[in-house]
Write a structure and sequence with these properties.
The chain has 512 residues and is mainly alpha-helical. It has 23 helices and no strands. Helix 2 packs across helix 9, helix 6 packs antiparallel against helix 7 and helix 16 runs antiparallel to helix 17. The relative contact order is 0.10.
């Protein structure tokens, strides 16, 4: 929370900053030199607080309070094992205990949702009500809240992880019994700001045995540095370079022509993927240097041939969260086809709203929800018609599925990039037969980018080609570089980013 923009002057430490380049080696050294479990947990907790404090120092107290409340709720929901044994002899007590656990879970879920809603969605609700009731006072209040109260960075990821933890404990997973261990899990700096969303049980064993491994091994060192280098290339060179043209086109919709908007839409889809997957690569690499394995978040999503497959490959930890904590509790696919389609739409609408407090994100989620529902209906029909099922498995069927999937995905990115419906509507209206301002063309292609439209098309096709080639090598041929080569190439990649990367382009998912 920021009461004013001038109260604190912070120097954010991003993954591609010089400060992080100095910070990470010091953290790795301090961690591996720490002699005991308590020391290592303390090192990680302190450096994570420092990392976050350089972004939002005033929000540290809020995050720690949230960690403490969720820790206590987890213990209360999990209960004491000895009492659970006694309750087998007293079913009435067991029933009362279960009701108490449900109430505590409800309190925990409501607390985390209210925390998220209070900081992130109040202006959106007030503006919507102000528009609906034509009440200017509501717009004034929303404007005040927007100016003086900002959501803490990473709050959406923080809240979803806490809800997942409480639900898992309610379902029978053991709760954390050590507050420092739980706080280290919640505030672990590589995943703190933009994920991936990690369940407590994924890291619990490592946290409990954190002092078992005495030193960093060569495989962890090379793979960690290689992930950081690959992520830095994706984000620092490719995504940030694409961002220049994307921003110029979408910030000048009246002057950009139809061809410019088409190019910007495709470029933004690639930028978003490379930006976010680059962040996750650096996060996973940083964690690996400390002995932790964070889950993958992307698996070549733009090679998916259905929206269902896309969501198994895109933002995989968010997809798993939506599936486990929303879709299944709503009934999943157990209640018939139409209820399944409704559940898919509800889940994706809420998934869109999680990304941001704007109607554009809701529309984005609605497009994906309807697409998933249509895919489920098509899949159901294919099971009844063997010829249709055979077609979808053929090369023409795969190509048609891929084309429809990517057309839907890239079209929906317009609402993601322009969540104001007036702007996204203007971009779509200019998709066809809208001439470009000649001065805009000169400014963007000749003076800023130094490329013409055809060269940009080839550049985008080249990026896609590299993705396909990488997929063929990694998934088809199953070839990987050995650790000495990764260790040798990583410094060269990082040096290239240092020299070539544009400055001042933030990670996109910091906004969420």
């Amino acid at each position: 929370m920021r009461l004013t923009n001038a109260l604190f002057v912070t120097h954010p430490m991003t993954f591609l900053s010089l400060s992080y380049t100095l910070f990470l080696p010091l953290v790795v050294a301090a961690f591996w030199l720490a002699p005991t479990r308590l020391w290592r947990l303390s090192v990680l907790l302190i450096v994570s607080l420092v990392f976050y404090g350089l972004h939002e120092p005033i929000d540290i107290t809020l995050l720690l309070a949230g960690v403490l409340i969720n820790f206590w709720l987890g213990l209360a929901i999990g209960g004491v094992p000895s009492l659970q044994v006694r309750n087998l002899l007293h079913p009435q007590r067991d029933g009362r205990r279960q009701q108490q656990r449900k109430k505590l879970l409800t309190i925990g879920v409501v607390f985390n949702i209210l925390l998220l809603f209070g900081f992130k969605y109040v202006p959106f609700v007030l503006n919507t009500l102000g528009w609906g009731f034509q009440e200017p006072a509501l717009f004034d209040i929303a404007g005040w809240v927007t100016r003086y109260i900002a959501a803490p960075l990473g709050l959406s990821f923080f809240a979803f992880e806490c809800i997942a933890y409480l639900v898992d404990v309610f379902r029978g997973a053991p709760p954390a019994e050590d507050f420092i261990e739980f706080a280290t899990y919640k505030l672990f700096f590589p995943k703190l700001l933009s994920g991936p969303i990690v369940r407590y049980q994924t890291l619990a064993s490592k946290l409990k045995n954190i002092a078992q491994q005495r030193f960093l091994n060569s495989a962890q060192l090379s793979e960690g540095l290689w992930l950081i280098a690959c992520g830095a290339i994706k984000k620092g060179i490719v995504a940030d370079s694409l961002a220049i043209g994307v921003n110029l086109a979408f910030n000048n919709l009246e002057r950009a022509g139809s061809g410019d908007i088409w190019l910007a839409t495709v470029a933004y889809g690639l930028q978003l993927y490379l930006d976010f997957s680059g962040y996750v690569d650096i996060a996973r690499g940083s964690a690996l240097l400390l002995g932790f394995e964070l889950p993958m978040n992307f698996d070549f999503p733009y090679l998916s041939n259905s929206l269902a497959d896309f969501w198994r490959r895109w933002h995989m930890t968010l997809g798993a969260w939506l599936r486990n904590y929303l879709y299944f509790p709503l009934g999943g696919s157990r209640l018939g086809l139409w209820r399944t389609c409704l559940n898919l739409c509800i889940v994706m609408l809420l998934g869109g709203l999680w990304h941001g407090a704007a109607w554009g994100f809701i529309v984005w989620g609605g497009i994906h929800g309807l697409g998933l529902a249509l895919h489920r209906c098509t899949e159901n029909l294919s099971q009844r018609l063997p010829q249709l099922q055979k077609f979808w498995k053929s090369p023409p069927g795969w190509l048609l599925g891929w084309s429809l999937t990517q057309a839907t995905v890239f079209f929906s990115w317009i609402f993601f990039r322009l969540p104001d419906l007036n702007q996204s509507g203007r971009a779509i209206a200019h998709f066809f037969n809208h001439p470009a301002d000649p001065q805009f063309v000169t400014l963007v292609y000749q003076e800023t980018l130094g490329l013409d439209r055809s060269q940009i098309v080839w550049l985008l096709l080249g990026i896609v080609g590299v993705m396909v080639l990488n997929y063929g090598i990694e998934k088809g041929l199953r070839l990987k570089l050995n650790w000495p080569i990764k260790l040798a190439l990583a410094p060269t990649c990082l040096l290239a980013v240092w020299i070539l990367a544009p400055e001042g382009v933030p990670f996109i998912y910091f906004n969420f």
